[in-house]
Design a protein that fits this description.
single chain; about 575 residues; alpha+beta; Sulfite Reductase Hemoprotein, domain 2; Sulfite Reductase Hemoprotein, domain 1; Alpha-Beta Plaits; six-stranded mixed beta sheet; five-stranded antiparallel beta sheet; 17 helices; globular; NO2/SO3_Rdtase_FeS/sirohaem_BS; iron-sulfur; heme; Ferredoxin--nitrite reductase
């Protein structure tokens, strides 16, 4: 029997939902019957509209979408102006103030504190600049990720941007495929670093080469069934398929999307992700059915991959290649792109608008977003670099961050997410400053990847980090407090591996001390040139567990209490959200 949500979606989903959102927006949120809110809010997600957590029932988050993080000239400015004019909440965040936007790990943007009545006007302003929220959430193909410098990369192996654009318009734009069994992630890597992270996507294309008719050609190998979350992460499995051109790459990915759309589990949502589908069916059966029913050309066996060259979040040394896109990098045409580090991916509206102005003044106006919650300023002529780097805003969102800021990612947390168990963004921003000021890192280590997810859904990709944090709750001194599980040794690259969890339910105020003890042990005991991931592998989990010593420090934050129990982590206990609407 299909799940309750499948029944709701079968009645109405996809493009048709927009008309109902606009209708409810005109009537006001109170027009949505209380006993139908779960149904309607499930459907709203397809258009990127999410009701915020309990207690914030009258406010909504909007997730935007694009192909590969590309924001064309004028688009970041439009988003910043919408954040300035519509994304103001009833209580300021103590770290970030009011009116800001969040950069995501899928190369896109989220806006918070929107009121339903404003959604049509927000769409109008965004869409006038070519920005959409369609298919940004819910059980559908989510934002398609790739190398954020596709088409600009000096060392690009396989051209990928035209293929990414085609996935955006023809595949994600197909309303007949909008109702997937669960959310579905697609990635395309055309570079040597592996920065689209195919191994944690439902279907991923990675660069490869193969001899065909006596000639060595480049193209893609295909992997399926990767993903994180629920403490059941999976590495995408090799489907033993090589595609040498854009047309066949498109058809193979489309074929797997259609196969999963038709055969994926719609009865048990906990088993509906493609990683479990691949577990159950196996790659050989999937490949055979793909050949028999979904593509009309003979599938070639996999080519020679280049995974041994992957460096993006791969735990390899700096000498092997770049780990991210932060810093100044030459493009294929001789211009440069400049990657900035935005702490925990949160930009104020005013900073976003100023960044758009800077992109226009010094480059082409195009801004691209990475999987590490950072923006890139594109197409900067060499003669403008010095003036660009002297801009005051680049002192705040710097292209030369300290190792802790450079490597850190954080999800939304209890500030807005009903699944999260802990606050994440503000705590992490303050923890980064504390680590910077109190913990020394070896001179040859430019970054330590610390990823913080407020729950085991792992939107912050903690499983893939040097040091991964999962939000938890624990008892301390007779009170329930926010806490974290601590894991070590994750990474993607040639041999993807997930963290080993070495400490569980550590009270949040003891976590900075635990991280400090880990980093200090790493600095003291590592071999010359050894990365954190290599050190963990060499030492072994048992030893590293002993090095990770939770302890209270002078680190302070105003939200150490159990924020899950409040309507907003930073509000006074007795405060209430404006326009409260019960959903019981």
């Amino acid at each position: 029997m299909a799940s309750k949500k499948e029944a709701w979606k079968s009645e109405l989903y996809g493009d048709a939902v927009r008309e109902k959102i606009e209708e409810f927006a005109e009537q006001g949120v109170d027009a949505i019957p209380e006993d139908e809110r779960d149904k309607w809010f499930t459907r709203f997600k397809f258009w990127g509209v999410f009701q915020q957590r309990t207690g914030q029932d009258s406010y909504f988050m909007m997730r935007l979408t694009n192909a590969n993080g590309v924001l064309e000239p004028g688009q970041l400015r439009a988003i910043g102006e919408v954040a300035r004019d519509y994304a103001s909440g009833p209580v300021e965040n103590p770290e970030f103030g009011d009116a800001w936007l969040d950069l995501t790990t899928r190369q896109s943007i989220q806006l918070h504190w929107l009121e339903l009545e404003d959604i049509p006007e927000v769409w109008e302003k965004l869409e006038a600049a070519g920005v959409s929220s369609r298919s940004a959430g819910g059980d559908t193909m989510r934002n398609i990720t790739g190398c954020p410098v596709a088409g600009r990369d000096k060392h690009e192996l396989v051209e990928s941007q035209p293929l990414l654009d085609r996935f955006q318009t023809e595949l994600r734009g197909n309303d007949a495929l909008s109702n997937m069994p669960r959310k579905f992630n697609i990635s395309v890597t055309g570079c040597r670093e592996g920065c689209a992270q195919d191994s944690i996507n439902d279907v991923g294309l990675e660069p490869a080469k193969k001899e065909i008719d006596g000639e060595t050609v480049t193209g893609f190998n295909v992997r399926v069934g990767g993903g994180l979350g629920s403490r059941k992460p999976r590495v995408a499995r090799d489907l033993d398929i090589f595609v040498a051109d854009e047309e066949r790459a498109y058809e193979v990915v489309r074929g797997f999307v259609e196969l999963y759309h038709e055969h994926g589990n719609r009865d048990v949502r906990a088993r509906a992700r493609s990683r479990f589908f691949v577990d159950e069916w196996g790659t050989e059966k999937i490949r055979d059915l793909l050949q028999e029913e979904y593509v009309d050309f003979e599938l070639r066996s996999a080519g020679e991959n280049i995974r041994d060259e992957y460096t993006y979040n791969a735990g390899r040394s700096e000498s092997a290649g770049k780990h991210d896109h932060v810093g100044v990098h030459e493009q294929a045409n001789g211009d440069y792109y400049v990657g900035l580090s935005v702490a925990v991916g949160r930009l104020t509206a005013s900073d976003a608008i100023e960044l758009a102005d800077i992109a226009d003044e010094y480059g082409s106006g195009e801004v691209r977003l990475t999987r590490r919650q950072n923006p890139l300023l594109m197409d900067v002529p060499e003669e403008k670099l010095d003036d660009l780097l002297a801009e005051p805003l680049l002192g705040k969102h710097t292209p030369v961050p300290n190792p802790f800021q450079r490597g850190t990612v954080a999800c939304t947390g209890t500030e807005f997410c009903s699944l999260a168990l802990t606050e994440t963004k503000a705590r992490t921003a303050r923890m980064l400053r504390w680590l910077r000021d109190n913990v020394d890192v070896p001179d040859d280590v430019s970054q330590l990847k610390i990823h913080y997810s407020g729950c085991t859904a792992d939107c912050g990709q903690a499983n893939t980090a040097d040091i991964g944090l999962f939000g938890m709750r624990a008892q301390k001194d007779g009170e329930m407090v926010e806490a974290m599980d601590i894991g070590v040794g994750g990474g993607i690259g040639e041999e993807p591996s997930f963290v080993e969890w070495v400490r569980q339910r550590i009270p949040a105020d003891e976590v900075p001390g635990a991280i400090a003890s880990l980093v200090e042990a790493f600095a003291e005991r590592r071999e010359p040139g050894q990365t954190f991931r290599e050190w963990v592998e060499a030492e072994g989990t048992e030893a590293v567990t002993e090095y990770c010593v939770p302890e209270e420090t002078d680190f302070e934050a105003p939200y150490m209490h159990d924020a899950k129990q409040s309507w907003y982590p930073f509000a006074e206990e007795e405060a209430e959200a404006e326009q409260p609407v019960t959903s019981d």
